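Ticket reopened. Same input as before:
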Amino acid sequence: MMPELLPGLIILIPFLAAAFIRFPRLYEYRVLLDCISIAAAACMTVAAGIACYYSTEAPIVHWVGGWEPQEGVVVGISLIADTVSAGFIFLTSLLTTAALLFMYKRYETTGSFMHILTLVFVGSFAGFILAGDLITMFVFLELMGICSYILTAFKVEDEAPIQAGFNIAVIATVGAFIFLLGVTLIYGLTDTPNIAEAAHRLSEAPSTPAIAVALALMISGLAIKSSLFPFHFAHADSHSVAPAPHAGLFGAILMQAGLYGIARLGSILLDAPIINMEAFQQLLITAGVLTALVGAFMSIAQNHLKRLLAFSSVAHIGIAAIGVGILNTEGLAGAGLYITGHAAMKMSLFLAAGVFLHRFSSVHAGKLAGLGKKASVLPWILITGALALAGVPPSGLYGGKVLIELGLNEIGLGWLIYLIYLSAALTGAAVIRFAIRIMRDKEPDMKEEPVYVHEKSLETNKKGGIIYMTSIPAALLAAGICITLFPVLTSGIERAVASDFDSSQYVELILQGERETAGEITAREFWSLGDLTKGIASALFAVIAGGILSIRRFDPSRVTAGPLELLRNLHSGHVGDYLAWLTFGAALIATWFVWQL
Amino acid sequence: MSEIIDFLPYLVVVWLAIIGLYGMATSRNLIHLIMCLCIFQSGIWILLLTIGYRRGATAPIFDDVSPEVFAADPVMQALSITDIVVGSTIIAVLLALAVQVHKRLGTLDPDKFNAIRK
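Engineering reply: fixed in the latest deploy. New output:
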């Protein structure tokens, strides 16, 4: 077993499986199709797990085709599996396995395209995460994007998916091209696409507006992919209409991939006296706070479960962006733990929405009302997930917030943690409000139902397999809610972040071939009384707010005036509006970087 | 004089990016919008070729000339081809969706889209 081959293998497995599925007439045997895709995702999980284990000693660097650096000059393409990247891929392929297991029963008539797109999506995700140079990053970023656009518009006979698919395709493509503009400028300034070499050369260069513009373009491109405010509009639409397991994958890892890119480039490429780090920090934290608040307030005003969860993903990526924006070890580790905890929760909530769609053909609170006992455990899955989203200990979101608070205290912005708890509690309240409405209300209210509620073109007449399908989100929920209890995970993330996001160690690793092994760190204490109180208070707040908002008189979705209505009207579904926001945001980021030079 | 000429392509890039974005944001027709995306993309190709360009250099094909010969930067040329492939894939997807929009709604005007909002 040669660990150097693992990074290549991780990318190859899903692509080979995707190609093999399309073998003539194979797709007629539905069981074979599912077996191959599930086996591929499971193999990828194992490979990523092994890579993660090896990389705790030293990161695995794979030079494609054996083109190693010649006399300190990079001539080839590198794939780097360090603990952070391999761990992120492990998480992703685990969730993909869950999604494919769910699809086995849910989508029995969709043919092979959905499986192929899922596998290519996860393969290119791995490529983006492992890539050691900017051009490879761009190619995989866009390949991942194309799969996500097609999956968004998969129900191509319904109106809402076509609209959302078109919007996300235009917005995210412009985002990828803006990223490419930045990459090209960096190449022009440093004569290399390799991240380590570019960082090394930039650290010796004088700081000029050209460098600031190039970095601003790259950061805006990735921010568009990670749906930070004001780039989140098209993403929220896309997650509302994509098939449930894919909406879960988008909310759990696709947006986070963009944030991973920002963290990587921000800490490695920017870590040189070429740019004002404080400006970068202020920018990310401001964007994160705005994203978290907008997402949370939009989320409580939704009656459609998938759209509610889509805005809740937006709110939580905002919180993770604050963690990344702190730019110290606690902040980055907090964001890592937060993303891990959130991924399990969001995936299981979206899969629960998928079970609702399978069984009752709707995820709209008005239409599902009056289910009572028929819904069995589903509302309880929603409520448990909601408590975890609000940050009840010991979920990963609780541990992440504790670390983010430590980081915020270090840079003197400790008060921001209350905004974080508020928006997290609001996203929890939104889900609890939904669960209470479907259990308490006696009569369905058909008038409220929006047009994007159905998955018409994917419906089957078979309604079996409910227990099998419910067990998948339940298992994810059970695993996800106790993440902070495992010190191997919490201190593992912190130890990995401390060394993997260090610029000089990264440059040493690529150009010299080795770096110092990561030092041991003392395990963190997550169970101080103050933190526990905050976590539990936040969960209680979610329950109470959810209860109050589910009363008809206080129903936020019925508000017809005031700031909430204004905010809702901004989400117009119009591609021109979204592009205007995008241009405004990207121009603002570029101006800020040049001004703060 | 040659400095001005060296600088001109960057102005073209900025101009194409701005009119492309403006056209997309104000478009009243999805096909027109896709064309504006192509214009935006053309700006990027010009930037790629400008950065790879070297005055007086030959094409980077080392089949029958010595590798020491002064040639343009092949990385940027390869990247522009990659970008053309990526771009045409996206445009194929977008055009297919535009056809589907016309089939469902009978119009290509994005103002008439209101299946999903708020």
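Residues 99 and 108 of chain B are 9 Å apart (CA to CA). Chain B has a mean pLDDT of 88. Please confirm and we'll close it.
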